[in-house]
Amino acid sequence: MEQQRGLLLLFLGLQLLLMGALLYQNHHRHSLALFLRVLRRDRPVVGEELPFLVSVSSAGTSSQDVYANLSEIHPVDRRKEDLPSCPLISPYINGPLRVMIPENLTMEQVVKKNPLVELGGQYQPPDCWTRHHTAVVVPYYGRDQHLQHLLFHLHPFLQLQQLHYAIYVVNQVHNTAFNRGKLRNVGFWEAMQEEEWDCLFFHDVNLLPEDDRNLYICDIFPAHVSVAIDKFDYKLPYRGYLGGVFALRPIHYLKINGFPNSYQGWDLEDHDIAARTPATSGAPRAPTSWPQSATKGSRMASTRWATGCFPRSCRPSTPTSLWTSSSPLAGPRSPRGKLRGSWRLDQDPQDLGCRAALPTGFLLKDSLFYSLLLSANLHPHPFISRR
């Protein structure tokens, strides 16, 4: 009897050991999967996550015009509350795009090409509930042709991604040195007054994305988006470069206390933010869910950008009229159709004045909002005040 009892206890003990080993193995697998997800930095979405790489069908490998698929988006005859959620990956994205800007482009043409964009430059998908809400803040100082080109290209680009978005153009009207950090702060303040955006893109006016798989949504960390620009042969010009397009969440903006107001000129505030961000919100990095080509010959998507940047020596010292009819002098085009070279804006000493809202359907902020921002005691940030 005692021998049978001992065998039974031994059998039960072996079962417990086996069960413990299985539980430990499953826990180990779960921990490993969690660790890999953290390494990949998948985007946090309510209830689900985006895939590590965005893929499209093989039919969408050739470059096409950004407006090619826009006609497929149209309102549906259903109540808004009955609309389904938008798919995880938009069915309208294609991949590589041909950057094609019409000659003598006007704001009226941009509005006509984007009938679903609401007054103020805001858009919501008409056929589904969007998952992402993105504000694009564009500091602007006398570069009317660049602004027209950006709106012409970026509006359909964002609509294809099924985003709820708005483009905020923040205008500096005084004939003083360009203060991009302050304009970005104004854009953030005004954007968050209108909507509870979960993502903000601070966007230079002279950069155009060349692949619609470059999703305008935020990561769990701040992201330097324009990591491959044609002007720099699709490489970072130097380590720590943070210019062009920068994405972050509102909580990240508050952690870094906004952008510095103390820098005047070009690019200086980007160096400051690059130094400050790792200590507060995590080091800015290239977005991981936007695939980048390993070589120039790869057919994968890459975070590539076409520039319309005129040389520093040619930048106008006075603002350029928003209604100037001058056309850009485009540089040579590459065989792949990317805009290369430099654009030059004609000089116009006329002051832009204060235009809070234009009749074109695109919101243009002005410097009247500076006082609103500075009264909030957000700036200058601590690193500047110690100097």
Automatic annotation (TrEMBL):
Its main location: Golgi. It is a single-pass type II membrane protein. Pfam families: Glyco_transf_7C (PF02709), Glyco_transf_7N (PF13733). Its cofactor is Mn(2+). Coiled coil: none annotated. Its EC number is 2.4.1.-. Responsible for the synthesis of complex-type N-linked oligosaccharides in many glycoproteins as well as the carbohydrate moieties of glycolipids. Belongs to the glycosyltransferase 7 family. This is Beta-1,4-galactosyltransferase. It comes from Mustela putorius furo (European domestic ferret). The gene is LOC101674375.
